[in-house]
Amino acid sequence: MGTFVIAQRLSGVYKYEFVSRKGKTIFTSNDFELRFECEEEIEKLKSSLERCVFMRFKSSSGKFFFRLILDGHEIAVSRRYTTQLLLQKGIDEIVKYADKAEFLDFSSAEDIFGSSE
């Protein structure tokens, strides 16, 4: 099952990613000023997944990616895939698991693994 991961960029804004069962990022959201906005958008996405549109593109370097559109607004961009089949597998994973996915919050500045002495 996939997981939503909330993190903070170096610039101080927040983002979330949907990560596959194997630990690979499938898509990354737009930026948010506040962490709770990430949680709200994740819940909105989970509850309205059937209304999402996946717009597929091919980059100038030949890689495939999609933009996730909800209610006419782009909310996320996928990672780059080498083939259309892998792109479709990423989309399928979102459709199958996103509504059941939990989210992890790695946005705090605390060292979650502790120091190694």
UniProtKB/TrEMBL annotation:
Gene3D superfamilies registered for this protein in UniProt: 2.30.29.80
All residue ranges annotated as the DUF1508 domain in the record: 60-103
Protein name: DUF1508 domain-containing protein
